[in-house]
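Sample intake sheet
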Amino acid sequence: MRPPLQAARDQLPSVLGRQPGISAPDLAAQLGVSVPTLHRLLQEQAAHIVSAGKARRTRYALRRPLRGDLHDLPLYEVSHEGRIEQIGTLSALHPQGSCLHLSLPPGHQAWPLPDEARDGWCDGLPYPLYDMRPQGYMGRQFARAEHQQL
């Protein structure tokens, strides 16, 4: 029989993969460990885990690799003056969805966010990025040409 901590360590990725955006108390209850122990487990696997929200609104999810890479995707904004600035990062989540981490200066808002996405959690792409995905005739051609690599 495995020690409870090792069992929780082994179960953590599968639970996060099934329930993206789960809170710490719910995750700890499913793993059968205390919340402080859960936080230690999350720190051990920090490269594979996305967290967003503050205090009791913090949620956790399993990071999904894109072409084998676990890094966040940088998100840039072009200002009216033509300057390019990074305004945040986008994390792909397992099994689907994304988490948008905005790093804007105080008083600056890139676009209005609905209440359910204010901590960055999205079921797919954030809505301002919808039009950037391949679609229509060109999208089909892109998918046909690149499907093996994706």
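Comment: The longest strand covers residues 84-92. The chain has two domains: 4-62, 73-146.
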